[in-house]
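Standup, Tuesday
Yesterday: got the pipeline producing structure tokens again.
Today: sanity-check two examples.
Blockers: none.

Example 1:
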Amino acid sequence: MAENGKPKLALYWAASCGGCEISVLAIHEKILDVAEAFDIVFWPCVLDFKVKDVEALADNEIDVCLFNGAIRTDENEHMAHLLRRKSKVMVAYGSCAMEGCIPGLANFADREQMMQFIYHDSPSTANPDGIEPQTRTEVPEGELELPAFWNTVRTLDQVVPVDYYLPGCPPEAKWTIAAVEAILKNELPPPGSVIGMDVSVCDECPRERHEKKIKRFYRPQEIEPDPNLCLLEQGLFCAGIATRAGCGALCPGVNMGCRGCYGPVEGVRDGGARLISAIASVIDADTPEEIDAVLDTLPDPAGYFYRFGLAHSLLHRTRLAQANGHKVAEPFEEIPHLDPKLAE
């Protein structure tokens, strides 16, 4: 608690797009309630805080930390450990912290492949000297430092223990409000809980559903869907059958299939595998050739099935390239999850 008796709140942005920072402000006038109820001790995106301000706090002095973003660099890792040590309650806020989200798709490649394309092969790159970012560079004014860029994007709970999860890309304002109110009333669910709903997007979606028999998939621009009929039945990919509800089925509401940003429903370890199983069950084909023909109409299936959850899946990433017979290593490379039972 602060000297004024208010609980202390920290908010931090790691490897993400910044949408989660904006979503906090999407609670509108209730942000005033947050400011009145909490002493905000760290929110570098909005206020002039420094890392040294956090380092100066006693361990567990922060009551709640809303940590958004995946772990992509050693700076992200350092801040995750620092804020975990200083915080009583750590919340993985948003899909990037919870599942890896879009940054986690980088796990289909490795650091060397990404650097090669970005700084050498990209059509828009002009880099005749072949310069790549270095962690340390000498300049006349002194030494400049950049964080080390990891091979593998990790979720927050693969680096530090997490108490609660608030899913979404970004979380909807109503769940941010619900989390804040639960904290203020000391009515948080058991540690490890996901704050939100425990049904699928299909349960929220108002579209009519019948028996699904899919003979091909369409891109959104290829057809004009019936506004009242299940999009998946019309051949438009929709991850709602295997995705946790909580958004109000916003994407299906505008004729766009759910992409899965709220993560898997309760009890599912690998959301992509669950989604693959669900889609496979509705493909209308009898022979391997017919199945292949249907799947050929679904571009980038890995990107569809693991768009938000690759980093937190059982796959975790593609296998790393071999270097002189040894796997390229980095911190925690062989630890898919802090839970020792899941790491076996």
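Example 2:
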Amino acid sequence: MNMSVPKLFLLLFGALVLLFLASLSAGKIWIPWSAWFAAVNDPQWIIVFDLRLPRTILALAVGAALGMSGAALQGYTRNALADPGIMGVSSMAAFGAVMTMYLGTASAMPWVLPTGAMAGALIGIAVLLSLSGAISSVLTFILAGVILNTVASAGVALALNLAPTPWAVNEIINWLMGSVADRSRNEVAFALPFIAIGCTLIATTGRALDALTLGDAAARSLGIRMERTRLALALGIGLATGASVAVTGMIGFVGLITPHLLRPLIGARPGALLVPSAFAGAVLVLAADIIVRLIPSPAELKLGVAMAALGGPFFLLMLIDMRRRAA
């Protein structure tokens, strides 16, 4: 059943507003809305604006970045199972951040960790483009991403194995599990510009992604410059995903799930899925973050772990459905 795009945007925007308000109130300590208008030195005001507001903004921004990146990758590769992690950018960003923790510079200078993650993402982009070449096929592009992902994952494992102290291992593992908890305005100020630039670059590829549904040759005949499209996608996904990983750690499956939830509603045209996937990704991550706060447990469940618990079965069901259709 197809839904009009304006109606879908209205529903998603309404959900975002409700979740935004709920996120500022929900937690181990519930904050009534009246506390938002309390005195500046009120402890509840501090909880809302210094702790939960940056967390909420990051959840929205990271969800939008990962959702749009997943929709773009699935459109470019014509592969329903594509995800930002397939390019290896997430793993390279994680490797860059892990190296700062392994060397001990992240604790001494807080800005080093996000800078290392962004550097890892940009290096990943450069390697990806050099491996895939200027006129390579989509298959080569995917294989280059798989190689990059494998190398980066091996580097993270090596850093864990050679970590000088158990505390370093614990710090790396906790960061890799992914979370938006205890983030400050500094992380928000760092991530938002890169995510905004990355999503803007991705949005410019909508026409090219639509043309690619006809095949590479047909897209070129329609005037689509594949090398420019590939560069815009690599830079856009690299900046958006790299900035997300830099401030939250690894949060997976968002880019895989959101396009599949939207296709039955608005169709499968890749260009039309980009912006709605950003909204849906923001809704998904913010809703998941609210849920992990409300789960009764001594320690708060990591958002990355919760998304893996949701995305794993979803991925399995997709594989089963694709196999059934192929048969």
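Quick observation on example 2: Residues 5-326 form a domain with the ABC transporter involved in vitamin B12 uptake, BtuC fold (CATH 1.10.3470.10). The chain has a mean pLDDT of 85.
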